[in-house]
Task: inverse folding
């Protein structure tokens, strides 16, 4: 099948594109900054219609991953880029799909588990979850992230597509040996700083890269799935337990904790936001499980062992 991946040069695209190509599928990546790749890369600006829209004619699947990195400080300029790069690209892509004579049969649209409320009491499934933005005394940056997620999904819903099924993938933190998120977590463990962050109670939702690819295949194949779908492992853990499991998988003993105040200073120093580690994301893949999907890595312990082993075999040898 032909799969078009806007934003496929980003972190998730670098996991998905090679996996699809290895299976024999035709992969076309739409990128603002085209670079040589084992698949075809077509330039687009993510804002206006252009020659790139011709790639949608006769394509089977579109997986839209476009959006600027959120690993930054949420100043005014970065907020505009984060919002516009997601909402604008989703809107223009939807318009191109609607105008296609032979549109893709499935549009998988990236969203985020951050759309759910910061909470400790219960997990957020698609039918029972509480959307965020109304919590008491949460930082403004957390509200901004929820505003982005809400606007992102709204842009995907607005366009009328009679022949294309839409899935909004509310994806948790994707963990792979080459992924930025896992590299940061493992770096803390390797440096002896892998203790709890903040009070350690906040839940961490995640998904192993192999299950991410398998879940995307599942969403493509199962026509009954449309609208919001949580793409996350069944087991979410409090931060303290999550980091302890990662330390055990790596074989680390020293584990200095980091208070919220220390994280604030550290985030300022490395130009990022503490929301990435302090917000409680407790998400369950209700619809995936109900449809019969099974995870290769439903629990964090075996997933952490696999990721550490693969990191040593690949990333570790390059450093």
Result:
């Amino acid at each position: 099948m032909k799969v078009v991946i806007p934003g496929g040069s980003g972190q998730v695209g670098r996991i998905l594109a090679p996996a699809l190509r290895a299976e024999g599928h035709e992969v076309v990546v739409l990128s603002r900054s085209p670079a040589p790749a084992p698949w075809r890369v077509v330039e687009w600006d993510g804002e206006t219609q252009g020659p790139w829209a011709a790639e949608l004619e006769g394509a089977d699947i579109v997986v839209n991953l476009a959006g600027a990195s959120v690993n930054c400080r949420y100043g005014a300029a970065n907020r505009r880029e984060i919002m516009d790069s997601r909402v604008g690209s989703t809107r223009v892509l939807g318009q191109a799909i609607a105008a296609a004579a032979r549109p893709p049969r499935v549009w998988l649209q990236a969203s985020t588990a951050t759309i759910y409320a910061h909470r400790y009491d219960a997990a957020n499934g698609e039918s029972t979850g509480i959307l965020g933005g109304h919590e008491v005394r949460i930082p403004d940056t957390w509200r901004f992230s929820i505003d982005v997620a809400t606007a992102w999904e709204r842009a995907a819903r607005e366009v009328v597509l009679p022949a294309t099924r839409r899935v909004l993938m509310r994806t948790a933190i994707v963990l792979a040996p080459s992924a930025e998120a896992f590299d940061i977590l493992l770096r803390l463990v390797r440096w002896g700083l892998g203790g709890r962050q903040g009070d350690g109670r906040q839940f961490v939702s995640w998904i192993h890269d192999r299950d991410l690819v398998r879940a995307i295949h599942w969403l493509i194949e199962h026509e009954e799935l449309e609208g919001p779908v949580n793409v996350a492992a069944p087991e979410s853990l409090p931060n303290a337990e999550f980091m302890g499991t990662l330390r055990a998988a790596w074989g680390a003993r020293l584990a200095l904790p980091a208070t919220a105040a220390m994280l604030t200073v550290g985030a300022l120093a490395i130009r990022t936001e503490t929301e990435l580690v302090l917000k409680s994301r407790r998400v369950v893949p209700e619809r995936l499980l109900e449809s019969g999907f099974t995870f290769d890595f439903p629990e964090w312990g075996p997933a952490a062992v696999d990721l550490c082993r693969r990191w040593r075999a690949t990333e570790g040898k390059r450093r």
